[in-house]
Specification:
It contains 36 helices and 28 strands. With 1099 residues, it is an alpha/beta fold. Strands 1, 2, 3, 4, 5 and 6 form a six-stranded parallel β-sheet that branches. α4 packs across α6, α7 runs parallel beside α8 and α35 crosses α36. The longest helix is centred in the N-terminal third of the chain and has 48 residues. The relative contact order is 0.06.
Length: 1099
């Protein structure tokens, strides 16, 4: 045998001589110490008694064993006889063992061992195949631990099979070829044998691999000298790496956390094979190979971030489904890719095989001169409330991590340039939402505008040719402009000549945004992979590829249309059949019905503790920014942002550049004894400059920038501040000085972004300014944020598992209870894991800021018309204050902040001393009163939802006054008369929270309001809401809604109220409008599309 080959030790059987020696030793011990004889006698007596008792049972078993063993020996002799050919009289000729000439002799098994004549073969059992064979090998192989290696002193890279028993198998490479830079590293008990099999396959394909345990990865010098490495990584319980793989994984993960992006570029070419078993996971019914291969995902993601070149998509083996189902196909893709990589320097591929030195040189060349980079895959989001950014960031992380795509970036759209994005060969994935009025979100509005211009330009049809894209839209069907922006993106991309590689998705918040997005995302990867494969052709000949794609799309559409027509016919037939069955069913009396015996299951309490097994941990999002700390006194940022002067020819006050307004009045509208605190607040906008655009001084009566002009139905945006005490506590928890000054830079790999990092964070900001004005400290944390927080925890911190569980699929119930229901502050989330961002915060603060969502402006409906309050819009809001399920008091950020403003008006009408609030006007396109006063108007606004209708009625009062003018009447016709105007309002009690009671009563008295319907929910035993009033006045409601010029407005809570009001309107049309349910619903849908049924609602 070879010097490096381990010789297995065999157990020595007990012979007669051994037994005699043992008896002699016992006798000698008793002579020297007679006391030992007493326990020996007692033991002997006990054994004798046991033998007497068990003898009647043991005797039949012994007799049966004797006959069965004899029968087995006879059967084995027959098999051996057949195997050797003695039964037929044919003498078996020994086979010459197979040798592989491509392997250097120095690395092959001794020829003396492999060429010795074979004697008659012993009886061989039937060979195992597939998963059974792999698992049998795993059970035979032991884990290679550091202690065993240290004890033996042997080279851990040595891994050979006994060639005497497997002479015909391809020889396994041992580590004699120290020049080779091709490694196979294994981590885990099961991975040991798989790595050996992989080595055999590599040898059979002409390569010279070296086997190493992952614990010894540093001996391979993977980070300095160019090489190729195949990692075989095992994931065990709780989604943790096997112990033998842990050191290697933690090493590369630490390099990723420290931001060493691209440190392995040109050095390491790699592939990862994951081994796992979903039977080890918590929920076996809903898991896949992806869920049980978390360790492989983590390593793959880390190596990609560090710039290593991936050979093939990561393999994921699930033993529950059969390892061979993924292992064999993965090997088939691995070796061609490996051969291609090794021959990429232009040399003949054959010369790189069969020679260790040539192999080493080829690997070095392949690492330094990698093939052309993969096409750019850009995940771009437009998000107003954070949902689109959360989904997009998670999607991009999975693409770059679990799915193995290269060259993946994720940005808000305003951070990218439209022209760069539309370059041929690029692949774009848009995740975008619509605001209530169909406007683009703030962080994609500039990109959206430029995309429209590019699409509408003379060369619009060609500017995007060669670009592939898809769109995932987020929306809420309660809003009038449902999916307006996502659909517009699809339209403008098509007009620009781009090609959709995957159908647009439309996630409806009323049905579950994240549930739909998850399904859409699961089906995205295969089309995305095809788009990546097609990208080089789109870049080389974009016009031809776009035409072919359009032809395929047209053909597919024709097929779909045909299928839809057939499906429609089937549904009509099924409907007729169902109606016939219903008629027959009506004949069945209730006495024939069989009562149900199924009992309702008792609700189980929500699991709040971290389970022992965690499934579906999301991929780690990329951290795009890092902090550059500045010297003390270098503070240059000014907060709050904004001012009183809009600069430039196209200047306007916006969310990014607000107007600093004074709070000129503040009044409480609810009774002092009420637990609800509703405020009426007035802002003074009269200080805004009018030099750049020019305001409408005749209509507003003041000198303002036109961007500050407002109309009934518009909203005012307020940029709030976080609570100062919470800011101080978080800074202390992070061990940061509030006065420390820093600026943000793009992390390596993101420098090509056209804008500065995170535009809401000004250069030269202090920690206090950023925590106060820039990031959200109180909204429920997103799962991507929890994933990043877990990454910056110590491995031995139990809180890390808590955070991982909360962001995982298996932790959905825990997330709903701990995060969505309890709504903890960011401080409370950090305290779940004491080590989270507990060390090296100077280097990780950039990741903390990047993953924490921006503090968003709050929008409030304006409750005045400019005719009555020129330059001084008013709002009404409830001060948010509630107790969490755990009994913790939660306060709203903006409403609590505004409630703290003190106003001291004097009796002469001066506005007094006030603070300034950053504000901007958000124009409404559809939620506004009719321009024609003869059109009927139905308004439904319970609670603070009545606020905008006060402005509507102020505008209507002016319109009615103008109607009395003889000239106006003559223009409209002598028969013109005002249309009906009805308001449904609801509150608790008349004497507690009847908002704007005096104003509304006055509108009724002066004929501005035709009818005021009030529902006081707590003035009687049974609660009554606005939907109940609508049902009681169904005839009047149906008459208004059926009018072809009528307009219906709903304002308030977007949850239960909007849904119930919609149902009440539909029911009124059915009960008193002469329609069936389908006709009533169709009318409301048509009115929505026409802008005559408009809802301004909030969560």
């Amino acid at each position: 045998p070879q010097a490096n080959t381990k010789i297995p030790t065999r157990a020595v059987p007990m012979s007669d001589m051994n037994m005699a020696t043992l008896v002699a030793h016992v006798k000698n011990a008793v002579r020297q110490t007679p006391v030992l004889g007493i326990p020996l006698v007692l033991v002997s007596l006990c054994l004798l008694a046991a033998a007497i008792v068990l003898a009647p049972f043991a005797a039949p078993l012994a007799i049966a064993y004797f006959f069965l063993n004899r029968s087995s020996e006879e059967s084995g002799a027959k098999v051996a006889s057949l195997s050797s050919g003695t039964k037929t009289g044919v003498t078996a000729v020994p086979k010459t063992p197979v040798t592989t000439t491509t392997v250097p002799l120095s690395t092959a098994t001794s020829s003396k061992d492999t060429t010795a004549p074979a004697e008659t073969a012993p009886p061989a059992p039937a060979p195992l195949t597939g998963s059974a064979a792999l698992m049998a090998k795993m059970r035979k192989s032991g884990a290679v631990t550091g202690e065993k290696r240290a004890a033996t002193g042997a080279d851990t890279s040595v891994s050979t099979k006994a060639s005497a028993t497997k002479a015909s198998a391809p020889p396994t490479i041992v580590d004699n070829n120290t020049d080779s830079r091709f490694f196979i590293l294994y981590g885990g008990e099961a991975s040991t044998q798989i790595a050996r099999d992989l080595s055999d396959k590599a040898v059979a394909n002409g390569f010279a691999p070296r086997l190493f345990a992952m614990d010894d990865f540093k001996q391979c010098d993977l980070c300095q000298t160019p090489c190729t490495a195949i990692f075989v990584v095992e994931t065990i319980e709780n989604a943790q790496p096997a112990e033998a793989a842990g050191t290697c994984l933690r090493f590369f993960n630490r390099k990723r956390k420290s931001g060493e992006k691209d440190s392995l570029r040109g050095v390491l070419t790699y592939a990862v094979l994951g081994l796992g078993d979903t039977n080890l996971l918590l929920d076996r019914q809903t898991t896949t190979a992806k869920d049980c291969n978390q360790a492989a995902q983590t390593l793959d993601s880390a190596l990609l971030f560090l710039g290593a070149e991936k050979l093939v998509t990561r393999g994921e083996c699930n033993d529950a489904a059969g390892l061979e189902q993924a292992f064999e196909p993965w090997c088939e893709t691995l070796f061609p890719a490996l051969a291609k990589a090794l021959s990429s320097d232009g040399a003949d591929a054959a010369s790189t095989k069969n020679d260790g030195a040539n192999t080493n040189a080829a690997i070095q060349t392949a690492s330094k001169d990698a093939p052309a980079s993969s096409p750019s895959i850009k995940f771009l989001y437009g998000s107003q409330t954070g949902n689109a950014s959360e989904i997009c960031v998670s999607m991009a992380a999975e693409a770059a991590g679990a799915k193995g795509f290269a060259n993946v970036t994720c940005n808000s759209m305003n951070e990218k340039d439209v022209t760069d994005c539309l370059a041929p060969g690029n692949i774009l994935v848009f995740v975008v939402s619509s605001t209530g009025d169909g406007d683009a979100p703030d962080n994609c509005d500039m990109f959206f505008t430029r995309l429209k211009r590019a699409a509408k330009a003379k060369t619009g049809g060609s500017v995007g040719v060669g670009t592939q894209y898809t769109v995932l839209g987020l929306g809420d069907q309660n809003y009038t402009a449902f999916m307006a922006v996502p659909r517009a993106f699809s339209t403008f991309m098509e007009k620009a000549g781009a090609t959709a590689f995957y159908p647009r998705g439309e996630a409806d918040d009323t049905l579950g945004l994240y549930e739909y997005a998850e399904v859409w995302q699961d089906a995205l990867w295969e089309p995305l992979r095809k788009a990546v494969d097609d990208a080089p052709a789109f870049k080389l000949d974009p016009v031809k590829m776009a035409q072919e794609a359009a032809a395929v799309k047209a053909l597919a559409k024709a097929v779909v249309d045909e299928e839809k027509a057939a499906e429609k016919a089937r549904k009509e037939m099924a409907k007729e059949s169902a109606e016939a069955k219903v008629e027959m069913a009506k004949e069945v009396t209730t006495k024939d019905a069989v009562p149900s015996t199924v009992e309702t299951a008792t609700p189980q309490p929500v699991q709040t503790a971290t389970p022992s097994k965690i499934e579906g941990i999301p991929a780690l999002p990329a951290c795009r920014t890092h902090v550059k700390w500045l010297d003390a006194g270098k503070e240059t940022a000014v907060y709050p942002i904004g001012g009183s002067v809009a600069k430039g020819d196209d200047a306007a006050f916006t969310a990014a550049s607000p107007f600093l307004a004074r709070v000129s009045a503040k009044t409480r509208m609810t009774a002092p004894e009420s637990d609800r605190r509703v405020l009426h607040v007035e802002f003074d906008l009269t200080g805004g400059n009018n030099n750049s655009i020019g305001g409408d001084t005749e209509s507003t009566g003041c000198n303002t920038n036109s961007s500050l002009d407002y109309q009934p139905g518009d909203s005012i945006g307020v940029l709030p501040m976080n609570d100062s005490s919470l800011v101080a506590k978080i800074a202390k928890r992070l061990n940061l000085d509030l006065t420390s000054v820093f600026t943000l830079d793009w992390a390596p790999g993101f420098e090509d972004s056209k804008s500065k990092p995170l535009p809401h964070v000004q250069p030269g900001s202090t920690v206090k300014q950023v925590l106060t004005h820039c990031i959200d400290l109180t909204s429920p944390v997103r799962k991507s944020q929890l994933r990043v927080f877990a990454e910056f925890c110590a491995d031995d911190d139990a809180g890390k598992q808590v955070l991982l569980n909360l962001c995982s699929k298996s932790g959905k119930a825990a997330y709903a209870e701990t995060i969505m229901s309890e709504r903890p502050t960011l401080l409370e989330v950090l305290n779940l894991a004491p080590s989270c961002f507990g060390s090296d915060i100077q280097n990780t603060f950039g990741a903390f800021i990047d993953t924490t969502h921006q503090l968003q402006p709050r929008l409030y409906s304006i409750t005045t018309a400019p005719e009555c309050a020129p330059g001084k819009p008013c709002i009404a809001f409830s001060v948010v204050k509630h107790e969490s399920p755990a009994g913790i008091l939660r306060n709203g950020v903006a409403t609590t902040w505004l409630d703290g403003f003190e106003v001291f008006p004097d009796h002469d009408g001066d506005e007094g001393t006030t603070k300034t609030v950053p504000v901007f006007i958000k124009k409404s396109h559809t939620f506004k009163p009719p321009a024609d006063v003869t059109h009927p108007m139905l308004m439904i606004g319970p609670g603070t939802g009545v606020a905008p209708f006060r402005g509507f009625l102020q505008r209507r009062a002016k319109q009615l006054k103008e109607l009395t003018d003889d000239k106006k009447l003559k223009e409209m016709g002598s028969t013109a008369k005002p249309g009906a105007c009805v308001l449904f309002f609801g509150c608790r009690r008349r004497d507690e929270d009847f908002l704007y009671e005096s104003d509304l009563t006055e509108f009724v008295e002066h004929g501005v309001l035709t009818n005021l319907m009030c529902a006081f929910s707590r003035e009687q035993q049974e609660k009554r809401y606005v939907q109940h009033l609508i049902a009681e006045h169904a005839a009047e409601v149906a008459e208004i809604v059926k009018n072809e010029t009528a307009q219906v407005f709903v304002c308030g809570d977007g949850g239960g109220m909007a849904r119930d009001v919609h149902a009440a309107l539909r029911n009124a049309l059915v009960s008193d409008g002469g329609m069936d349910e389908q006709e009533a619903e169709a009318l409301l849908v048509a009115m929505t599309k026409q802008g005559r049924y408009v809802r301004d609602i909030w969560s």
